[in-house]
Protein backbone atom coordinates (compact mmCIF):
# COMPACT_ATOMS: atom_id res chain seq x y z
CA UNK A 1 0.00 0.00 0.00
CA UNK A 2 1.48 3.37 -0.95
CA UNK A 3 2.02 5.63 2.03
CA UNK A 4 2.77 9.28 2.52
CA UNK A 5 2.80 10.80 5.96
CA UNK A 6 -0.02 13.29 6.44
CA UNK A 7 -1.81 12.21 3.26
CA UNK A 8 -5.06 10.28 3.23
CA UNK A 9 -4.84 6.83 1.68
CA UNK A 10 -8.05 5.63 0.00
CA UNK A 11 -9.14 2.27 -1.29
CA UNK A 12 -12.36 2.88 -3.22
CA UNK A 13 -14.73 0.04 -4.03
CA UNK A 14 -18.47 0.40 -4.38
CA UNK A 15 -20.78 -1.41 -1.98
CA UNK A 16 -18.26 -1.81 0.83
CA UNK A 17 -18.55 -0.42 4.34
CA UNK A 18 -16.18 2.51 4.69
CA UNK A 19 -13.91 2.74 7.75
CA UNK A 20 -11.56 5.65 8.47
CA UNK A 21 -8.50 5.03 10.65
CA UNK A 22 -7.00 8.11 12.32
CA UNK A 23 -3.61 7.68 13.99
CA UNK A 24 -0.23 9.42 13.83
CA UNK A 25 1.47 5.99 13.86
CA UNK A 26 1.58 5.26 10.15
CA UNK A 27 2.74 1.69 10.69
CA UNK A 28 -0.31 0.97 12.84
CA UNK A 29 -2.55 2.65 10.25
CA UNK A 30 -1.03 0.49 7.51
CA UNK A 31 -1.36 -2.76 9.49
CA UNK A 32 -4.92 -2.08 10.63
CA UNK A 33 -5.94 -0.87 7.17
CA UNK A 34 -4.54 -4.00 5.50
CA UNK A 35 -6.41 -6.24 7.94
CA UNK A 36 -9.66 -4.33 7.45
CA UNK A 37 -9.32 -4.53 3.67
CA UNK A 38 -8.67 -8.25 3.92
CA UNK A 39 -11.90 -8.51 5.90
CA UNK A 40 -13.77 -6.81 3.03
CA UNK A 41 -13.94 -3.19 4.19
CA UNK A 42 -13.05 -0.03 2.28
CA UNK A 43 -10.48 1.93 4.27
CA UNK A 44 -9.16 5.48 4.46
CA UNK A 45 -6.11 6.12 6.63
CA UNK A 46 -5.17 9.61 7.85
CA UNK A 47 -2.66 10.99 10.34
CA UNK A 48 -4.26 14.20 11.64
CA UNK A 49 -7.58 15.51 12.87
CA UNK A 50 -7.86 18.12 10.13
CA UNK A 51 -7.47 15.44 7.46
CA UNK A 52 -10.08 13.30 9.18
CA UNK A 53 -12.63 16.14 9.14
CA UNK A 54 -11.87 16.83 5.47
CA UNK A 55 -12.35 13.18 4.52
CA UNK A 56 -15.60 12.95 6.51
CA UNK A 57 -16.98 16.00 4.72
CA UNK A 58 -16.21 14.56 1.27
CA UNK A 59 -16.76 10.81 1.72
CA UNK A 60 -18.55 10.11 5.00
CA UNK A 61 -17.29 6.87 6.61
CA UNK A 62 -19.58 4.31 8.19
CA UNK A 63 -17.18 4.19 11.15
CA UNK A 64 -14.06 6.00 12.36
CA UNK A 65 -11.34 4.45 14.51
CA UNK A 66 -9.69 7.43 16.21
CA UNK A 67 -6.50 7.55 18.28
CA UNK A 68 -7.04 9.57 21.46
CA UNK A 69 -3.68 11.31 20.99
CA UNK A 70 -3.36 12.69 17.50
CA UNK A 71 -1.69 15.87 16.19
CA UNK A 72 -3.76 19.03 16.38
CA UNK A 73 -6.59 17.93 18.67
CA UNK A 74 -7.57 15.32 21.23
CA UNK A 75 -8.98 12.17 19.68
CA UNK A 76 -12.10 12.18 21.84
CA UNK A 77 -12.79 15.77 20.78
CA UNK A 78 -12.19 14.85 17.15
CA UNK A 79 -14.57 11.91 17.47
CA UNK A 80 -17.25 14.24 18.83
CA UNK A 81 -16.69 16.67 15.96
CA UNK A 82 -16.92 13.89 13.38
CA UNK A 83 -20.13 12.72 15.01
CA UNK A 84 -21.68 16.20 15.24
CA UNK A 85 -20.64 17.51 11.82
CA UNK A 86 -21.01 14.44 9.63
CA UNK A 87 -22.86 11.91 11.80
CA UNK A 88 -19.86 9.56 11.85
CA UNK A 89 -19.92 6.99 14.68
CA UNK A 90 -16.50 6.24 16.12
CA UNK A 91 -14.36 3.96 18.26
CA UNK A 92 -11.53 5.39 20.35
CA UNK A 93 -8.08 3.88 20.03
CA UNK A 94 -5.95 4.26 23.16
CA UNK A 95 -3.70 2.75 25.77
CA UNK A 96 -5.22 1.08 28.83
CA UNK A 97 -8.00 3.21 30.35
CA UNK A 98 -9.78 3.16 33.69
CA UNK A 99 -13.54 3.02 34.21
CA UNK A 100 -13.85 6.79 34.62
CA UNK A 101 -12.07 7.44 31.32
CA UNK A 102 -14.17 4.79 29.58
CA UNK A 103 -17.34 6.46 30.91
CA UNK A 104 -16.15 9.85 29.63
CA UNK A 105 -15.43 8.35 26.21
CA UNK A 106 -18.97 6.93 26.09
CA UNK A 107 -20.48 10.27 27.18
CA UNK A 108 -18.73 11.96 24.25
CA UNK A 109 -20.57 9.64 21.85
CA UNK A 110 -18.01 6.91 21.22
CA UNK A 111 -19.34 3.42 20.56
CA UNK A 112 -16.43 2.00 22.56
CA UNK A 113 -12.66 1.87 22.61
CA UNK A 114 -9.85 -0.39 21.40
CA UNK A 115 -6.80 -0.84 23.61
CA UNK A 116 -3.23 -0.64 22.31
CA UNK A 117 -1.18 -2.63 21.52
CA UNK A 118 -3.74 -4.05 19.14
CA UNK A 119 -4.22 -7.73 18.50
CA UNK A 120 -5.56 -7.05 15.02
CA UNK A 121 -7.59 -10.21 14.49
CA UNK A 122 -9.08 -10.02 17.98
CA UNK A 123 -10.52 -6.55 17.43
CA UNK A 124 -12.42 -7.52 14.26
CA UNK A 125 -15.54 -8.60 16.21
CA UNK A 126 -15.53 -5.19 17.93
CA UNK A 127 -15.30 -3.46 14.53
CA UNK A 128 -18.17 -5.56 13.16
CA UNK A 129 -20.30 -4.90 16.26
CA UNK A 130 -19.63 -1.15 16.02
CA UNK A 131 -20.66 -1.14 12.35
CA UNK A 132 -23.88 -2.98 13.20
CA UNK A 133 -24.66 -0.47 15.92
CA UNK A 134 -23.73 2.35 13.54
CA UNK A 135 -26.28 1.05 11.01
CA UNK A 136 -28.96 0.82 13.69
CA UNK A 137 -28.29 4.40 14.80
CA UNK A 138 -28.36 5.67 11.21
CA UNK A 139 -31.67 3.92 10.48
CA UNK A 140 -33.15 5.33 13.68
CA UNK A 141 -32.08 8.84 12.70
CA UNK A 142 -33.48 8.45 9.19
CA UNK A 143 -36.79 7.16 10.55
CA UNK A 144 -36.94 10.00 13.06
CA UNK A 145 -36.19 12.54 10.33
CA UNK A 146 -38.88 11.07 8.07
CA UNK A 147 -41.39 11.09 10.92
CA UNK A 148 -40.57 14.71 11.76
CA UNK A 149 -40.97 15.64 8.10
CA UNK A 150 -44.29 13.80 7.84
CA UNK A 151 -45.63 15.43 11.00
CA UNK A 152 -44.48 18.86 9.82
CA UNK A 153 -46.18 18.33 6.45
CA UNK A 154 -49.39 17.13 8.10
CA UNK A 155 -49.49 20.20 10.34
CA UNK A 156 -48.93 22.51 7.37
CA UNK A 157 -51.73 20.87 5.37
CA UNK A 158 -54.13 21.04 8.31
CA UNK A 159 -53.42 24.74 8.89
CA UNK A 160 -53.66 25.56 5.17
CA UNK A 161 -57.01 23.78 4.97
CA UNK A 162 -58.20 25.84 7.92
CA UNK A 163 -57.20 29.06 6.18
CA UNK A 164 -59.03 28.08 2.98
CA UNK A 165 -62.11 27.17 5.01
CA UNK A 166 -62.19 30.64 6.53
CA UNK A 167 -61.33 32.48 3.32
CA UNK A 168 -63.78 30.74 1.02
CA UNK A 169 -66.35 29.56 3.57
CA UNK A 170 -65.76 25.91 2.70
CA UNK A 171 -66.11 22.79 4.77
CA UNK A 172 -62.99 20.73 5.52
CA UNK A 173 -63.49 18.27 2.65
CA UNK A 174 -64.00 21.06 0.12
CA UNK A 175 -60.97 23.00 1.34
CA UNK A 176 -58.76 19.90 1.25
CA UNK A 177 -59.89 19.06 -2.28
CA UNK A 178 -59.19 22.66 -3.36
CA UNK A 179 -55.66 22.35 -2.01
CA UNK A 180 -55.17 18.97 -3.68
CA UNK A 181 -56.51 20.25 -6.99
CA UNK A 182 -54.09 23.19 -6.98
CA UNK A 183 -51.21 20.86 -6.08
CA UNK A 184 -52.06 18.56 -9.01
CA UNK A 185 -52.28 21.49 -11.40
CA UNK A 186 -48.89 22.80 -10.29
CA UNK A 187 -47.40 19.27 -10.14
CA UNK A 188 -46.34 19.74 -6.54
CA UNK A 189 -46.92 17.93 -3.30
CA UNK A 190 -49.83 19.03 -1.16
CA UNK A 191 -47.44 19.57 1.77
CA UNK A 192 -45.16 21.88 -0.25
CA UNK A 193 -48.08 23.95 -1.50
CA UNK A 194 -49.51 24.16 2.02
CA UNK A 195 -46.15 25.30 3.41
CA UNK A 196 -45.90 28.02 0.74
CA UNK A 197 -49.41 29.19 1.53
CA UNK A 198 -48.62 29.42 5.24
CA UNK A 199 -45.35 31.21 4.54
CA UNK A 200 -47.16 33.81 2.42
CA UNK A 201 -49.73 34.37 5.14
CA UNK A 202 -46.97 34.69 7.72
CA UNK A 203 -45.21 37.32 5.63
CA UNK A 204 -48.43 39.28 5.21
CA UNK A 205 -48.98 39.25 8.94
CA UNK A 206 -45.44 40.49 9.51
CA UNK A 207 -45.89 43.38 7.09
CA UNK A 208 -49.24 44.40 8.54
CA UNK A 209 -48.34 43.87 12.18
CA UNK A 210 -49.38 46.83 14.35
CA UNK A 211 -47.63 47.77 17.55
CA UNK A 212 -50.95 49.04 18.97
CA UNK A 213 -54.53 49.21 17.67
CA UNK A 214 -55.64 52.35 15.78
CA UNK A 215 -57.48 55.08 17.70
CA UNK A 216 -60.89 54.16 16.29
CA UNK A 217 -60.42 50.47 17.00
CA UNK A 218 -63.39 48.83 18.70
CA UNK A 219 -63.14 45.41 20.25
CA UNK A 220 -66.09 43.17 19.37
CA UNK A 221 -68.59 42.64 22.16
CA UNK A 222 -69.12 38.96 22.81
CA UNK A 223 -72.68 38.05 23.59
CA UNK A 224 -73.27 35.55 26.35
Describe the structure.
- There is one protein chain.
- This protein is an alpha/beta fold.
- The protein folds into 2 domains: 9-118, 3-Layer(aba) Sandwich (Rossmann fold); 147-207, Winged helix-like DNA-binding domain superfamily/Winged helix DNA-binding domain (Arc Repressor Mutant, subunit A), CATH 1.10.10.10.
- It has 7 helices and 8 strands; from the N terminus they run ββαβαβββαβαβααα.
- The chain has helices at 26-38, 49-58, 75-86, 99-107, 120-168, 172-186, 190-207; strands at residues 9-10, 18-22, 42-46, 63-67, 69-70, 73-74, 90-94, 112-115.
- The strands form 2 sheets. The protein has a 6-stranded mixed sheet, with helices on both faces.
- Helix 2 runs parallel beside helix 3.
- The radius of gyration is 27 Å and the shape is elongated.
Amino acid sequence: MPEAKGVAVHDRKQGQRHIMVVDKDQQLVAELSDSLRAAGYRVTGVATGDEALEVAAQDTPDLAVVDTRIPGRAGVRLGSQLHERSGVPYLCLSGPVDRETAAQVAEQGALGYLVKPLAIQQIMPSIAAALTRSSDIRRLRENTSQLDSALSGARAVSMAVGLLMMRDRLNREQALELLRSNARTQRRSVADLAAELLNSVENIYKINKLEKPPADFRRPVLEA
